[in-house]
Amino acid sequence: MSDGVLSKDGHDSTPGHLHRLVLFSDAVFAIAITLLAIEIHPPHHWHGVADLFAQMGAKLTAYAVSFAVVGVCWFSHRRVFARLVRANGGLDFVNFVVLGLIALLPLATELLWESHGGQAVLVYVGLVTLIGLAMGLVWGYAAFVGKLTEPMLAGEAWFVLLRVALLPGLMCGLTLFSLVYPWGWALLAALVVGLNLMGRRLAAKSTQEAAA
C-alpha cells in the first residue's frame, strides 16, 4: 500500500470512501425527490376541491410517477452498493453520471405535465431509460472491471446487470402505459414478481455453492 491510499492491486482503500460515496448519492436522490414537490404550484383561481384537483391533475400524476421513479432508482442504487466492498475513482465517475441524470428528473417532470403530447412522454421515458443504463454501467464497472464487489457467481452478476439496467425504463414505460390501459398493471406486477423470483433463485444457488 502506498501512502495509505492505494492497495497493491491499485484500488482506492481510503477509509470511508465507499461510505461517503453512498451518503453523497443519497443526498442527490433526496434533493431530486424534494424538488419534484417544490416545482408544483397551485392554480391562481380555483373553486372548490374538485376544481382544484381537476386543474392540478396532470401535475399530481406526473409528480406521483416521478416520485415512484426516484424511489425505484434509489432502491436499485442501494441494492447495487450493498454488494460493493470498496470504491475507487472509476466508480466515482460512473456514479456521477447516474446522479447527473437523476438531477434532471424534476425538469423532465415539469415537461411532462406542461405538455400533453407524446413527445414529452418519449423524452421522459428516454431519460429514465438512460438512468437505468447508467446504473448498469455502475454495476458493470464495479463487478467486471474494478472488481469492487463481494464474491458471486458470474450468472448472478449478469442478472444484476440486466435488472438494474433495464428495470427503471421498463417500469416507467409500463406505468405510463397503465395510466391509459389499466391492464398494463398486470404486466408490471408480472415483471416485478418474475425478476424477484429469478433473483432469489440465483442468490440461493450462489449461497449453496459458497457453502460447498
Can I get a quick summary?
The chain has 212 residues and is mainly α. The protein has helices spanning 17-38, 48-82, 89-102, 105-114, 118-145, 154-180, 184-211.
List keywords for this structure.
212 residues; mainly alpha; 0% strand; globular; disordered N terminus
What does it look like?
By secondary structure, the chain is an all-alpha fold. Helices cover 77% and strands 0% of the residues. The protein is built from 7 helices and no strands. Helix 1 runs parallel beside helix 3 and helix 6 packs antiparallel against helix 7. The protein is globular.
The helicity comes to: over 70%
Which sheet architecture does the biggest sheet show?
Answer: none
Strand share of the residues? Answer: under 5%
Number of helices: 7
Computed CA radius of gyration, to the nearest angstrom:
20 Å
* DSSP strand tally: 0
Which spans of ≥5 residues are poorly predicted at pLDDT below 50? 1-5
Shape label: globular
Helix-strand pattern: HHHHHHH
Could you report the average pLDDT, rounded to the nearest whole number? 82
